[in-house]
């Protein structure tokens, strides 16, 4: 073995006598390590989450890595046979691969080259404790939907939000549906709602047989325009219509300007539901997004800032409303030993296994917000010299979580580039970008529905859709990946 080979092997190997603490420290600057025995033979791959899981299982920081159970995938291949270590690692899901000599000792360690891997818009980002907390449900055989993780997740989420209570549910859409049910929205009712949003925000209005009335966005926040809302409320009053509720979306992680919206709605007796599916961790004037309206809905879908793979939550100022949401989410069973029902409900509760994932993710939320904000700053820096590119602004009224980095392309400066052409160029390079949500008043589903633009001269949500571009924003995006995406955007604009 040459000195170079020995050094190359050492950089990514760790011995069984090394401690848990040492392993974690080394893994701060390496994606993974190969655990080797005293003779230098490879045993298994070691990643940070493997060690954190040991910590959670009660092993102290001084525990030697010999205590790690065997790994699943073989982590070594004879140097002579290793024609394509990168392909092998991709195939086996490994981050590192040991290349061994004839005696089976590690000569070199190859690390996975991530440069030509696909970059996704907003993939889940696990921290390491999720598995252990979800598995705790198995240890106690609490696989049934309800259980201690659900109760703990609700309490921890409420504490994070500074809200009196929260109900853990199966999705954000379910949370919004329950919110409308709690407000007694029914057939023939009118619900005011943001036009620039995702369908999950609006479909529950249809579930209840009510009619959406769409409100445009304002340029400073990209969210519900108080000016448009004021005109829509005045028109409803003139027509003798009393809207039953308003659903205000906090788009791309930015809070709507809620003070004027809440004041206007209060003056017309309209309760406000915040759709905070994208804005968990953001704030409005120092208060957590999702806690400003009468009710707030959150999503833990796989693409959101934290995830339970699928899930949601509902919060409210009035804990009785949250208790009522739990009642409706578990088939509306009246308190009786037999199955007694006076109203119907839904099966909308979060499972105890997924709540374990949620508890671990919630501990990471502030870190994820910081990372996403940093990703936004990096993109903006990297593309500062491209005059055609602008950005979704951060409203002066709060702190955005930058769930997605949203750029805009000025058609007059972009040399013919459009969001669609840039998205296609990125896709060809294995990078996933998306247009901004298509406004609801433009959807065939809502042809003929009422819509109030920001002002007579400007439908701002249409402008966002025409010019907006969502860039990959996953919180585990590396600086190199950001630079690569920025470079592709620059070239696509020319
Ligand atoms: C994701 C999302 C929802 C729906 O949440 P699910 O958990 O996917 O049902 C609702 N509104 C907005 C704005 C969203 O982004």
Summary, kept brief:
This protein is of the alpha/beta class and 494 residues long. 35% of the residues lie in helices and 17% in strands.
| Major sheet description | 8 strands, mixed
Rounded mean pLDDT score: 93
> What is the gyration radius calculated from CA atoms?
26 Å
Q: Unreliable stretches, pLDDT < 50, 5 or more residues?
A: none
Helix fraction bin: 25-40%
Strand content: 15-25%
Which ions and ligands are bound to the chains?
Answer: pyridoxal-5'-phosphate
Strand arrangement, largest sheet?
A: 7-15-14-11-10-8-9-20
List keywords for this structure.
globular; eight-stranded mixed sheet; binds pyridoxal-5'-phosphate; alpha/beta; 21 strands
Structure description:
It is globular, with a radius of gyration of 26 Å. Helix content is 35%, strand content 17%. Helix 6 packs parallel to helix 12 and helix 7 packs across helix 11. The protein has 494 residues and is an alpha/beta fold. The longest helix has 18 residues. The two termini are 49 Å apart. The structure holds pyridoxal-5'-phosphate.
Present the secondary structure layout.
Layout: H1 3-11, E1 13-15, H2 20-26, E2 33-36, E3 42-46, H3 48-56, E4 76-78, H4 85-92, E5 96-100, E6 106-111, H5 130-139, H6 148-161, E7 165-169, H7 172-182, E8 190-194, H8 199-207, E9 211-215, H9 226-238, E10 245-249, H10 258-267, E11 272-275, E12 283-284, E13 287-288, E14 295-299, E15 312-316, H11 319-329, H12 352-363, H13 365-382, E16 389-391, E17 398-399, E18 405-409, H14 419-428, E19 434-435, E20 451-452, H15 460-467, E21 468-471, H16 479-493
Parallel strand pairs: 1-2, 4-5, 8-9, 8-10, 9-20, 10-11, 11-14
Antiparallel strand pairs: 2-3, 5-6, 7-15, 12-13, 12-17, 14-15, 16-18, 18-21, 19-21
Helix pairs in contact: 5-12, 6-12, 7-8, 7-11, 9-10, 13-16, 14-16
Bound molecules: pyridoxal-5'-phosphate.
């Amino acid at each position: 073995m040459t000195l170079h080979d020995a050094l190359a092997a050492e950089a990514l190997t760790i011995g069984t006598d090394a401690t848990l603490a040492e392993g974690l420290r080394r893994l701060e600057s390496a994606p993974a390590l190969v655990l080797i025995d005293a003779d230098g033979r490879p045993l298994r791959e070691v990643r940070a989450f493997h060690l954190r899981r040991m910590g959670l299982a009660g092993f102290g920081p001084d525990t030697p890595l010999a205590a790690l159970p065997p790994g699943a995938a073989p982590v070594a291949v004879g140097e002579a046979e290793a024609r394509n270590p990168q392909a092998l690692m991709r195939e086996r899901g490994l981050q590192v691969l040991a290349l061994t000599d004839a005696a089976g000792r590690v000569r070199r360690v190859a690390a996975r080259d991530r440069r030509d891997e696909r970059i996704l818009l907003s993939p889940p980002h696990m921290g390491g404790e999720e598995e252990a907390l979800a598995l705790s449900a198995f240890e106690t055989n609490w696989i049934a939907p309800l259980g201690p993780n659900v109760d703990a997740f609700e309490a921890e989420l409420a504490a994070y939000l500074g809200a009196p209570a929260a109900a853990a549910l199966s999705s954000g859409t379910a949370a919004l549906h329950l919110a409308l049910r709690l407000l007694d929205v029914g057939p023939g009712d009118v619900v005011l709602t943001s036009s620039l949003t995702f369908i999950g925000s609006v479909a529950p209005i249809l579930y209840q047989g009510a009619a959406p009335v769409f409100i445009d966005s304002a340029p400073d926040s990209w969210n519900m325009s108080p000016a448009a809302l004021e005109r829509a409320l005045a028109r409803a009053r003139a027509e003798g219509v009393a809207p039953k509720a308003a659903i205000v979306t906090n788009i791309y992680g930015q809070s709507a300007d809620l003070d004027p919206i809440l004041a206007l709605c209060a003056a017309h007796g309209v309760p406000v539901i915040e759709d905070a599916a994208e804005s968990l961790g953001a704030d409005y004037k120092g208060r957590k997004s999702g806690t400003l309206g009468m009710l707030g809905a959150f999503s833990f879908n796989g693409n959101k800032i934290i995830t339970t793979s699928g899930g949601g939550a509902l919060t409210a100022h009035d804990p009785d409303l949250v208790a009522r949401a739990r009642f409706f989410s578990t088939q509306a069973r009246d308190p009786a030993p037999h199955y007694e029902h006076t109203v119907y409900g839904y099966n909308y509760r979060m499972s105890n296994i997924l709540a374990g994932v949620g508890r671990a993710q919630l501990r990471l939320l502030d870190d994820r917000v910081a990372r996403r904000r940093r990703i936004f700053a990096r993109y903006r820096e990297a593309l500062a010299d491209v005059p055609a590119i602008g950005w979704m602004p951060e409203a002066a009224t709060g702190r955005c979580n930058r769930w997605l980095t949203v750029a805009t392309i000025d058609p007059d400066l972009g040399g013919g580039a459009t969001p669609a052409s840039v998205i296609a160029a990125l896709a060809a390079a294995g990078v996933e970008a998306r247009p901004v949500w298509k406004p609801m008043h433009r959807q065939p589903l809502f042809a003929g529905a009422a819509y109030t633009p920001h002002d007579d001269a400007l439908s701002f949500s249409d402008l966002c859709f025409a010019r907006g571009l969502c860039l990959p924003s996953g919180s585990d995006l590396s600086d190199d990946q950001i630079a690569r995406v920025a470079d592709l955007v620059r070239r696509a604009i020319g």
